[in-house]
Amino acid sequence: MTVIGRLAQAVPSARCLVLTTFDVDDYVLGALRAGAAGFLIKTTPPRELIRAVKDCAAGGSALGPSIVRRLVATYVGVVKQPVPELERLTERERDVLVVMAKGLSNAEIGLELYLTENTVRTHVAHILAKLGVRDRVQAVILAHRAGLG
């Protein structure tokens, strides 16, 4: 059993964020299966690392953009599927979801869509609630299933 798994059993409220030099799918999946809230590469810029720590501490998750792209490409497949929950989103929320599916942070989404980071955070919260998912990764998977990302 990994350290993450042991910690998750001993302290269920603990949130683990893995920071490593190894950008290997098996490591990512192993860490997430063990209960990690996030997985980042050591080349992550300091601001994004700080944001990821805060997001994970607040109950969210954090995965590096390259990791998100690979996970989605590998585990979702290329066949588009209808996702009725997407109909609940406003046009702007859908825009945010499409950019979020690229693996961008809230700050990067804001720059791309000309929104403040707080506005992006609000849209992300609404997206998660409307889609009935617990984190960004699940929302991105739904977006990719529908062919949005």
From TrEMBL:
The keyword Transcription regulation applies. CDD domains: LuxR_C_like. The keyword Transcription regulation applies. Signal peptide: none annotated. One of its GO terms (molecular function) is DNA binding. Residues 1-57 form the Response regulatory domain. It comes from the Bacteria. GO terms for biological process: phosphorelay signal transduction system; regulation of DNA-templated transcription. This is Response regulator transcription factor.
